[in-house]
Amino acid sequence: FVSDISLLKEKYGPKRIGVVIGTSTSGISDGEKAIRFHLDQGKFPENYHYRKQEISSPSRYVSNWFNLKGPVFSVSSACTSGAKALASAARLLRLGVCDAIVAGGVDTLCNMTIEGFSSLSVTTDGVCNPFSVNRKGINIGEGAALFLLTREPSMVRLCGIGETSDAYHISSPHPEGEGAEKAMLLALEQAKTDSAKIDYLNFHGTGTKQNDKMEALAVHRVFGEEIACSSTKPLTGHTLAAAGAIEAVFCWLALQRNDNKLPPHRWDGQQDPDLPRLINIAASKSQSKPKFVMSNSFAFGGNNISLILGAE
């Protein structure tokens, strides 16, 4: 990754390489510690500066680290941020603003996030159990994933993006998954393919009652019951703004494999009978080497995005 950026800087110059990072909570824990220190000592720690918790901090840090001079900004749309950053990067390339983009998502844990989700009664003490009749909620995680996007030929390409907004409720998705369905259909349209060509779907799959119900409804309407699918959140937890980028990495890895193995779905195997039947949840392998895969990300406010990655 580092060597690739160095080569691109030589080819295009640092002004033609941008950075777009999705984040929602990065730096907040620094602020929490600083406020506690201030309450105890009457002043902020000497090493504290408010810019540490600015939304722009992660993208600015990456740009400075690589000494890049192109556009730099962050995307903050809750749990779609990482995927939205990839969509923003694709637009910058398509418009000719940049020749290469470092893009992805990052979030770190903080008390505000943990207490906020706990107040919604959507967390579980055990491992999350997406689409199970026994599911009880999400696990909060933290993490990061970055991609290097260019217009140059590659073994994997971002070939479809679908974005919608339900504007249904400040925290709940549309119960019928209307916006989620539209996002998937828009991604298929941009990729110039149809649902039958998608070899694997990575669910948003949080393990909450509401998300899994609406996503199962939307997926069943778009793909029917036979799509190979899984949620990787039992492996990573819900990494919030990083989730869309991390789950795109799972899809990228699936396209690179030669054994047709798919990202695993860790659960108790007891599919909720009240959800539309999806017979290939937790399918361990694709029937043939995957060519197109889709990743879903959904967020507060009915903020939806679907990405399609394709193998060349």
TrEMBL record:
CDD domains: KAS_I_II. It holds the Pfam family Ketoacyl-synt_C. GO terms for biological process: fatty acid biosynthetic process. The keyword NADP does not apply. InterPro entries: Beta-ketoacyl_synthase (IPR000794), Ketoacyl_synth_AS (IPR018201), Ketoacyl_synth_C (IPR014031), Ketoacyl_synth_N (IPR014030), PKS_Beta-ketoAc_synthase_dom (IPR020841), Thiolase-like (IPR016039). One of its GO terms (cellular component) is cytosol. GO terms for molecular function: 3-oxoacyl-[acyl-carrier-protein] synthase activity. Belongs to the thiolase-like superfamily. Beta-ketoacyl-ACP synthases family. This is Ketosynthase family 3 (KS3) domain-containing protein. The lineage of its organism: unclassified sequences, metagenomes, ecological metagenomes.
